[in-house]
Amino acid sequence: MRGIVIGLVVLGAVVLPAQRRRAGQASGLSLPEEAVAEGRKVYNQTCTVCHGVDGTLGDRGPALAGNRRYLRSTDEELLEAIRDGIPGTLMPPAGLSEEVVRKVVTYIRSLRVTAYDAPVKGDVARGEKIFWEKGQCGQCHVIQGKGGLVGPDLSNAGAQRTMSFLREALTKEKPRPPRGYQPVRVVTAQGQSVTGILKNEDSFSLQLLEANQKLRMFDRAELREVVYDAKSPMPSDYDKKLAPQELEDLLAFLSRQAVTRVRRQQLGDPQP
Amino acid sequence: MRIALVLLAAGTAAAQVTYSDLLKADPNNWLSYQGSYNAQRHSALKQVHTGNVSALAPKWIYPIRGAGRLEGVPVVVDGVMYVTQPNEVYALDARTGRVIWEYRRQPALQRGVNRGVAVYGNKVYFGTPDAYLVALDARTGAMVWESKLAEAKDGYWCPVAPLAIKDKIIVGIAPGDHGLNGWLDAYDPETGKRLWRWHSIPKPGEPGSETWSGDSWKTAGGDTWLTGSYDPELNLIYWGIGNPAPDFDGDVRKGDNLYTESMVALDAETGKLQWYFQYTPHDVHDWDAVEIPVLVDAPFKGQMRKLLVQGNRNGYYYVLDRTNGKFLHGSPFVKLLNWASGLTEDGRPVRVPGVEPTIQGNKVCPPTAGATNWMSPAYNPDTGWFYLGALEGCGISYKAADKFRPGGFPFMATGYVESPAEPWQMHVRALDLTTGKIQWDYKQIASRGYGAGLLSTAGGLLFAGDDQGSFTAHDARTGQALWHFNTGQKISASPITYSVRGKQHVAIMAGSNVIAFGLHEPRP
User: Fold this and answer.
1) Which of A45, A92, A220 sits opposite B405 (nearest CB)?
2) I need a labelling partner for B107 at 20 to 30 A (CA). Which of A50, B65, B215, B498 fits?
3) Where are the domains of chain A?
4) Which residues of A touch B420 (CB under 8 A)?
5) B247 is catalytic
6) Which of A86, A89, A203, A218 has the most B C-beta neighbours within 10 Å, making it the best mutation to test the interface with B?
7) pLDDT tens column, B399-424
8) CA distance B223 to chain A (A)
9) pLDDT above 80: residue A33
10) Which is the CATH superfamily of the domain at A32-112?
């Protein structure tokens, strides 16, 4: 069933919660886009069993992208590991030409560049205005304590996400709502209907954030009906809703949201 | 005051577990990975039953330091519980969870998981990440002997809970995904001397070698990473064989690729192959056929038969005659199955053309993860039903050219991802033993990855668990969840039951913890 109306105007940028997949190829970076795309193709055919699709965590190897520190961070270190394998570990030599390996390296680099580190094309101040006004993003999303509760907190989105991830979140339809943000309607045994965002569930209980922003906890046994909205509440038409430059401005603003970076800088931590 | 200890010579002390104990499988104990040789995982204990299971409560928790998701099965002998993680064995007081001894292998190579111990005589046997079979003294944890199964530097390791039979310890090996050929071994329980080895990949000239093109048999996989079962009367060991290598590219290993993806029956005395049945000839989906063979004597079409049943990773449930391996029945236990249109009267799958890994990616249902996997099934003789964990979903499978490289590197020729259009969903299902017809279906809500195995009891219960951390007790006849407990961590192991001082316990490894449950006893 589609179209559970949550009572709030559901607009704004959903970013998957931290434990979910960190995906997306780079664009808008100083890396050659063609090489990134070719590298991604090879990567997703060769490396996913261990390292996961798009560098997320796989079954047998570490995630290659995400909010962590890396053992191998230079191009040469990555090249060597892919070309020769890593002795004493499960990592095999790729058996690919050096030219192809370099493309995979470029792709992995692109996975690791967060929006915060990517060059900004748009105007941050104008983007902020769009976030709160025309885009209505703040109705669902919170930044530094201000905004709505339906969607994820974006105060650190720039430090956690790649630019392409943010762009896709604004412009591409999601196959299903991210965990923790799915609209749901439950009907209690007494016939009371409650609509909200599904925060968690299992076979025995269900936790939701009601439209009136109240947390509600239910035993499944006391519910007569649970109706899930298969569609993500995150709009995916910001490329139509906004002018091209406005979209760039909004992305520029989002890319600056990086509270962990600011804290690190304050602590004098040189590591990104 | 001085306490005088009268020490008994080791030889004169009573053995903890004899072959006769293993045959009898006293329900107060849980003496092996499968609980009994037939691997039914059905306990005669019924102090906890459908009427009082709501009073089941945790009695103790033992956290295993440094553990991730434990996949082992505790073994319980006269009030002592033996649990493992790779390189480590712990003996616990099964009533209180207090440690009696612990053994740590050093240096501790980190590789794979560990699924538990075998106990025989006064020794505890377990496999190690550096591919040894180790015997410890069951009373102290002191090492008695170790036998090298394989070269760890070649990439082998041993996650297998060994199987103790009369005067033999049976153990398998991993990993076939590295193109390392598998085998099944028998060792002398007293000395650690190898008694026989059966190779799962035939060498040129041997029967079955014609099912491998060229030199592909040399790097063929076919490992033996999950414990099998045993029929003492027929003196046959049943063991499921893993996938062929490279997993996703069959072009370089044309033929049926025996004895990968097969059930084999070996003579326990000699290790000689008595029969085999291949579930997935020429597999290109990494559907290891290691799932536990459950042995049941039951009427089949009016005639008493010695049956071997298995829910296979390829999505079909199979009934075989375990005296000769004859195929009797096969039917899907998942709805999402697109790779075969059915089985022939010999049990051979009728392949749907084109459902195989491609360079661009191709949809395969069930996914490589399998419609089921290592998590134990159960059989309840009271209902006559076979129970198993079932995964509904599909994968996108890829292939690419790969080359075998010595030294323990994966030789898989690429892999798979979850199909976005068919997200995975876990179920517990009851199947009629001989027809495979689904009797009930319990959906584990929000549970998308496989995990816990099953335990059946004479109390009319089926215990299960899920990746949301819930440990559950179901009515074996209806599937209804009668009790649940949030363990707080994903469950990837199979539960057991035992009784100490007249009190039934149910135990499971949940995440990094071992948790034992018993009926709540209010203070008098």
Assistant:
1) A92
2) A50
3) 32-112, 124-175+234-266, 182-228
4) 175
5) no
6) A203
7) 877 889 898 888 998 888 888 889 89
8) 17
9) no
10) Cytochrome c-like domain (1.10.760.10)
pLDDT of residue B433 exceeding 90: yes
Give me the mean pLDDT over the B372-378 stretch. Answer: 96
CA distance A163 to chain B (A): 22
Where residue B350 falls among pLDDT bands split at 50, 70, 90?
A: very high
Q: How many residues does chain B have?
A: 524
Residues of B in contact with A16 (CB under 8 A): none
CATH architecture of A124-175+234-266: Orthogonal Bundle (1.10)
Q: How far out from the chain centre does Cα B347 lie?
A: 23
- Binding-site residues on chain A for chain B (CB distance < 8 A): 44-46, 48-50, 52-53, 60, 85, 87, 90-93, 95, 175-176, 200-204, 220
| pLDDT: which is higher, A8 or B434 | B434
Q: What is the ipTM of this complex?
A: 0.83
Which of B415, B423, B445 is closest, CB to CB, to A202?
B445
Q: Do domains A32-112 and A124-175+234-266 have the same CATH topology?
A: yes
Name the average pLDDT for chain A: 81
- pLDDT for res A14: 34
In whole angstroms, what is the distance from residue B509 CA to residue B282 CA?
35
Query: Model-level pTM?
Result: 0.86
Measured between CA atoms, the residue of chain B closest to residue A203 is B445
* Mean pLDDT computed over B432-439: 98
What one-character-per-residue DSSP string does B199-223 give?
ESSPPTTSTTGGGS-TTGGGG-B--
Spatial distance between the Cα atoms of B158 and B152, rounded to a whole number of angstroms: 9
For domain A182-228, which CATH number applies: 3.30.43.10, 2.30.30.100, 2.40.160.120, 2.60.40.1180? Answer: 2.30.30.100
